[in-house]
Amino acid sequence: EQLATRLKSMNSSELKSIELITNPSAKYDAEGHAGIINIKLKKNSAFGTNGNVDLGFGYGKNPKSDAGISLNHRTKNFNVFGNFANNNNKYQEDLDIDRITNNGVSDTYFQQYNTQIRSSHNNNYKFGLDYFLNAKNTIGFLTTGYFNNGHDSSNGITDIGTSFTKIDSSIVADNPSTNKYRNQAYNLNYKSAIDTLGQEFSVDLDYAQYRSEEYTVYNNY
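^ that's the sequence the OP posted. Answer follows.
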């Protein structure tokens, strides 16, 4: 769930590559037996100060938008970088169900019409600092996080009767819900290149906090 909401708030311009590792080495946490999806993010290596701004908007049955900004400043010994991305999405699902049940004596007919509208507002950010001790050794700090909010409205009516045309009762449902997801993570890292063949020694210290809130009201009349 946390991974899904992180990916929803991520802008595609942040991605460098996606690597499938079927037999991960000991440098990765031992978690599960199905391999690892390693999502690599871009890090700007150009000297000086530079950045990027992107905006997007679309409209189908409902509107959607995204925006992001990234900045990077690099010198001989320091690299400071950060970005912020936001996207908003709204979509609708219409559901019609006809159902017939039998209690051994007679049939009961149900006709259900339901409309669900979901809105999501996703934000994620990243800030980092690398200090190059020398050509082979680097120490760095990174903080990442997201704060995402959403709300759903699910409204429906179910007609009940002895046939689809003979209705004797109805159930009206109004089920609103809201959700909030928060994540803040910190990373302190050190990397040392051992040789020119790609071998390296690295140390990572991580601390993360997660918070999820979901609230739903079920009203049936």
